[in-house]
Specification:
The complex is a heterodimer of chains A (223) and B (357).
Chain A lengths: L1 E6 L5 E8 L2 E9 L6 H15 L7 E5 L5 H18 L3 E4 L2 H9 L7 E6 L5 E6 L5 E8 L7 E4 L1 H5 L1 H6 L2 E3 L10 H13 L29
Parallel strand pairs in A: 1-4, 4-5, 6-9, 9-10
Antiparallel strand pairs in A: 1-2, 2-3, 6-7, 7-8
Chain B lengths: L6 E6 L4 E8 L2 E9 L1 H4 L7 H23 L8 E7 L3 H18 L3 E5 H7 L12 E6 L4 E8 L3 E7 L5 H11 L6 H9 L16 H4 L15 H16 L6 H26 L4 E5 L6 H14 L2 E3 L3 H4 L3 H13 L25
Parallel strand pairs in B: 1-4, 4-5, 6-9, 9-10
Antiparallel strand pairs in B: 1-2, 2-3, 6-7, 7-8
Helix pairs in contact in B: 2-3, 4-12, 5-6, 5-8, 5-9, 6-9, 8-9, 9-10
Classes of the chains: A alpha/beta (223), B alpha/beta (357).
Bound molecules: zinc ion (ZN).
Zinc ion binds next to helix 4 of chain B.
């Protein structure tokens, strides 16, 4: 299967992958070096990936549904949904932290582990996995102190290494600045599909409300 | 591609309306709009994050409905146009991302166009080619401007704009103060009819000689607007009635407020037209539906010899057809498409009718 994978939960990333059964080949990939240029760079990057592969049309799209900062996250989702509509191909959602979990499993963790990325406002987006990378719990958004003890993979761990250490959670070396990426996200999607398992829909995992407050005067009080 | 009557699909997401319109040259085929207005009611104003979430969910269904209603396939489309600014940046990004995906998957040229100029361009769909010596007065919840339109596709100038709140925003805030709900425009317009517009005189923003100067030596804000002082004056007025334990004369306040807004907008627009030799004026934006604005602007334009053009209400509010209409003019004018590499510009000036690649 020829799959286009997109993730914009952190830096914008895209990858074109081909699978034969459980064997996944990466035909091309892109990751932005900036964290605030999603809507600018994503479409040109996808255009280049498709052109470099000979102008192919993917048979499916996989997109990271977060959690992640809202504005960037929506760029990937709007792109994926529209591409799926035009191409007439399915669009599958993948929880973005799963991408880092796949990278973590490649390092053969001894047992359960946590994946955490920056959620801004002094909080982390995090989820718990078993040693094979299956999601056990999450995703959540909390302060670092609420993470379970044990190894933590991802940029969130690097950001709050000391506070995590205080509750027995330890940032794993080499993963202190890891973000969800489209190559791992797409690989995970292809393996899941090959195993006959279902992926998610494309509803974003915001995990937070819009923060809008109803003004006092709207609650029936004049001034 | 037909250069004279190109088939263009336009996408709008700068505020709380998700719009997809399709035009063939100057002919409107479809104008599909999904609004998140209801979701903002309890907040008394547009909440950008809520609007952005709604755009994401509404886009593909709105696109699909527009294509079906127009009986057009994506293959037949000659070009795609999208609002790149001005507007709410998170909201713009949804429409722009979707438009880029649409362009890349179909291989069609993409134009990143100016929302304000599109409010003028929509006039083409109602009455055909725009006249010369054209000015535009745009009044909505997000903007309040006077434009000089020398060429719709290449030469648009900003003569005046609000330096603080947009007029529609002032309506929303005052409606909130008076406990009238959201959106403020229609309800204040209705209640004002029951009040005496002369009972309370509210200040007209930026009308002092030091701001306006003279025709020969214009002041810094001759054609500009300010509505934030007016809103504060209304708040103080309400407060005083409450302090005295008197009933707040809601209808008179609404009427006085509306008169202050409409008086200053119409007098400044007409003066700007006169001083720039503009004999035609196009009205646009959601507040164009306001009955007192239409009445007073019509009267003042008539006595100044200015021909006023007001598109139908559904083309005045934010929509995709206006984006498509301007896009079609850009195609017909041989303007190069923008491509895929641009970013949204929440403050895009009117001099940038479309972004250059
Ligand atoms: Zn507008």
């Amino acid at each position: 299967m020829l799959l286009l994978a997109i993730d914009t939960s952190a830096n914008a990333s895209a990858a074109l992958l081909r699978s034969e059964g459980t064997v996944v080949e990466v035909l091309g990939s892109f990751t932005s070096t900036e964290s605030n240029d999603h809507s600018e760079v994503l479409a040109p990057a996808i255009e280049s990936l498709l052109a470099a592969a000979g102008g192919v049309v993917p048979e499916a799209v996989a997109v990271g549904v977060g959690p992640g900062p809202f504005t960037g996250l929506r760029v990937g989702l709007a792109t994926a949904r529209t591409l799926g509509f035009v191409w007439g191909v399915p669009v599958h959602g993948v929880m973005s932290l799963d991408a880092i979990a796949l990278d973590a499993v490649a390092k053969l963790p001894a047992g359960e582990f946590t994946v955490a990325i920056d959620a801004r406002r002094k909080e982390l987006y995090w989820a718990r996995y078993d040693k094979a990378g299956a999601l056990l719990d999450g995703p959540h958004v909390t302060v670092a102190e609420e993470l379970p003890a044990g190894p933590v993979y991802g940029a969130g761990a690097g950001l709050y290494a000391d506070r995590l250490a205080a509750v027995g959670a330890k940032a794993v070396d080499g993963f202190e600045s890891s973000h969800p990426g489209a190559v791992s996200l797409g690989t995970r999607a292809l393996r899941t599909l090959a195993a006959g398992d279902a992926l998610l829909g494309t509803e974003p995992l915001y995990l937070r409300e819009s923060d809008a407050k109803v003004p006092a005067v709207m609650k029936g009080k004049l001034l | 591609m037909s250069l004279t009557a190109p088939l263009v699909l336009g996408i709008e997401s700068s505020c709380d309306e998700t719009g997809v319109g399709i035009v063939r040259g100057t002919e409107l085929l479809v104008n599909a709009v999904a609004s998140s207005m209801e979701e903002h009611v309890r907040f008394g104003g547009v909440i950008p994050e809520i609007a952005s979430r709604a755009h994401l969910d509404a886009f593909v269904p709105t696109l699909s409905a527009a294509l079906t209603d127009a009986g057009v396939s994506l293959d037949e489309i000659d070009a795609i146009a999208v609002t790149s600014g001005p507007g709410l940046s998170g909201a713009l990004m949804v429409g722009v991302s979707a438009a880029k995906a649409l362009a890349l998957a179909t291989g069609k040229p993409l134009y990143a166009i100016n929302h304000l100029v599109a409010h003028v361009g929509v006039g083409i769909l109602d009455g055909g080619e725009l006249p010369g010596n054209l000015g535009a007065l745009l009044v909505s919840g997000g903007h309040t401007e006077i434009l000089q339109v020398n060429s719709l596709t290449s030469d648009v100038r900003l003569l005046g704009a609000t330096i603080d709140d947009a007029a529609g925003e002032a309506y929303d805030k005052v409606a909130r103060l008076l406990g009238l709900g959201y959106p403020g425009g229609p309800v204040i317009d209705r209640i004002a009819k029951e009040g005496n517009p002369k009972a309370i005189r509210f200040p007209r923003g930026l009308t002092l000689p030091k701001f306006i100067g003279t025709a020969e030596e214009p002041g810094k804000h001759r054609h500009d607007f300010s509505f934030s002082g007016l809103k504060t004056a209304v708040a103080r007025c309400v407060e005083q009635y409450q302090k005295r334990g008197e009933e707040v004369p809601v209808a008179d306040i609404a009427a006085g407020f509306q008169e202050a807004v409409v008086d200053v907008i119409t007098s400044k627009a007409v003066r700007a037209c006169q001083e720039h030799g503009l004999t035609n004026l196009m009205l646009g934006g959601g507040v164009a539906a306001n009955s007192r604005l239409r009445e007073l602007l019509g009267a003042r334009c008539a006595s100044a010899g200015i021909t006023l053009r007001v598109p139908p209400r559904n083309l005045c509010t934010d929509n995709g057809a206006m984006v498509a209409a301007l896009g079609a003019q850009l195609v017909a004018g041989g303007i190069a498409p923008t491509g895929l590499k641009f970013s949204t510009d929440s403050g895009q000036p009117v001099s940038l009718v479309s972004l250059v690649a």
